[in-house]
Specification:
Elements lengths: L5 H17 L9 H16 L3 E9 L2 E9 L4 E11 L9 H20 L6 E8 L7 H9 L2 H6 E7 L10 E3 L16 H14 L5 E3 L8 H5 L4 E5 L8 H7 L23 H19 L6
Parallel strand pairs: 3-4, 3-5, 5-8, 6-7
Antiparallel strand pairs: 1-2, 2-4, 6-8
Bound molecules: phenylalanine and zinc ion (ZN) (3 copies).
The site of one zinc ion has 6 residues, from helix 3.
């Protein structure tokens, strides 16, 4: 699997920041900065050879958009989907939440093209609208699929907040290894978690589980029994002393003190966390996407 360029991921964040700045300071559902964000990603994906679709939906009297990008080839009955929400709250530009995941997924998709990857699975990428208003875009997408199309999606990888300034390294707890909380994800989620865990082990970074508590866009996928996984570096939660020992950073402070605030700007990113998580996205897409298809 490739090493994803941190500079390229950060260049996408610079563009998303500029889009927000030029559009009233945010990239929120129903605001012009959101559609400008979609068009930025779509232009790059189209030029890279993706087949892109903009899916519209209506929420709260405003039109929302999901951007879907399919990489031609792979088994059409064995789809690996990777997604992130592209909208921000109205309070700010949303660069960690969720420019970070959006940029990491975008750069991974562009690297697939640069390497002319010929995966065994069909790779599909999604950038969701209106997550901040209750997972509206991802819910609209999953609802729009026929049962047949839904059943072809064998895995969903979600990335929401992967560059938190006081980071933790959390993996969605597909196997319920801690035995508490919301329980395991759909069967197959444990394999996704194990793949992400193998990457972090390889770079010597400890990880911890975070429950599928319904706070991000994997929600509508797991509700349909689709295996899911992903990473998260923390939001408003406060880093404990034990977590600061494990990961560094500052105990007693939020993972992201600018969560849902105007200060979630380009300055609100931990480059090391962003770099590691972007590489984890690519590692997982390559490992799962190019695995031998069972016969
Ligand atoms: N989805 C939340 C948001 O966008 C953040 C979050 C992600 C919280 C993952 C918990 C787990 O505001
Ligand atoms: Zn988010
Ligand atoms: Zn948010
Ligand atoms: Zn686990």
């Amino acid at each position: 699997p490739p090493n994803i360029s941190l500079a390229n991921v950060k260049a996408h964040l610079t563009q998303l920041q500029s889009i927000a700045t030029a559009n009233g300071g945010n990239r929120a559902h129903g605001r012009p900065g959101y559609l400008a964000s979609v068009n930025y990603a779509k232009g790059l994906l189209d030029a890279a050879g993706y087949t892109t679709t903009v899916q519209s939906f209506t929420y709260n009297g405003a039109t929302g958009y999901n951007l879907i990008a399919d990489w031609p080839g792979g088994d059409p009955n064995d789809v690996l989907m990777t997604g992130s929400h592209l909208d921000s709250v109205t309070a700010g530009p949303g660069i960690n939440d969720n420019g970070s995941g959006s940029a990491g997924v975008l750069e991974t998709a562009l690297e697939v093209s640069r390497q002319a990857l010929a995966p065994t699975k069909h790779l599909r990428f999604g950038w969701w609208g209106a997550e901040e208003l209750g997972l509206r875009g991802s819910t609209a997408y999953v609802s729009s699929l026929t049962a047949t199309e839904r059943a072809k999606i064998k895995g969903y990888l979600n990335f929401d907040m992967i560059g938190s300034p006081n980071p933790g390294y959390f993996l969605y707890d597909g196997d319920n290894s801690d035995g508490v909380g919301s329980g395991p994800g759909p069967s197959g989620s444990a394999q996704i978690e194990a793949t992400l865990a193998a990457y972090f082990t390889s770079i010597g970074v400890a990880t911890r589980g975070t429950d599928f508590d319904g706070r991000s866009d994997y929600g509508p996928f797991i509700a349909q029994g689709i295996p899911a996984g992903g990473t998260f570096t923390g939001a408003e939660g406060v880093k404990t002393a034990a977590q600061a020992t494990l990961w560094g950073g500052t105990s007693g402070q939020a993972f992201d003190a600018c969560y849902h605030r105007a200060c979630d700007t380009s300055a609100n990113i931990n480059d090391t966390a962003l770099d590691r998580n972007a590489d984890a996205i690519a590692y997982t897409v390559w490992t799962l996407g190019t695995a031998a298809v069972p016969t």
